[in-house]
Amino acid sequence: MDLKEIQSLVKLVSSSKVDHLEIERNDFSIKIKKNSGKTEVLSVAQAPVMSAPAAAAPAAPAAIADTAASAEKPAADEVSGTEIKSPMIGTFYRSPTPDKPYFVEVGDEVRVGQTICIVEAMKLFNEIESEVAGRVVKVCVDDASPVEYDQPLFIVEPI
Question: H or E stretch including 153?
């Protein structure tokens, strides 16, 4: 099962009356449970996949909850623009490796299709591309932090 299929399953559970989905195959299992309108991926197990080494260890579920709570900012800190949201659950990285510069900084102009960050999910590093052309006005997530599906990563002011 690939990442797009998992994303489709999460969307399906989120938008339906189904509150629990569990799929098991020989080398893969996934459990998705919806609680009070919020969909969570409870567990995912898959045969080992070769990939680039991770810059940081995967975050614990408690750390994900702490980060989600701390990501909420007061209304006075709001910035207008188009949000670029995470297409998946994973770990957010602003640069390709720890010793390289960030893909984008606040104030940088981005174009549609430009790589702006990486989200690591299940030991796969997924390049996230900008959906809009404009100027980055806010980075919403700290580097190497866990992110949720549909969580804002950047705010871009279209130009």
Answer: strand 152-158
> How far apart are alpha carbons 106 and 43 in whole angstroms?
35
Give per-residue pLDDT as tens, 82-103: 999 999 999 999 999 999 999 9
Supply the range of the domain harboring residue 22.
3-46
> What DSSP state is assigned to residue 53?
P
Burial class (CB in 10 A: 0-12, 13-18, 19+), 58: middle
Q: What is the CATH number of the domain that holds 89?
A: 2.40.50.100
Q: 110 with 133: CB under 8 angstroms?
A: yes
Sheet bearing 134-139, strands edge to edge: 82-85, 152-158, 134-139, 109-110
Residue 142 CB coordination number (10 Å): 12
Residue 126 in 3-state DSSP? strand
Sign of CA dihedral 139, 142, 143, 146: negative
Does this model's pTM top 0.70? My answer is no
Domain count, the chain: 2
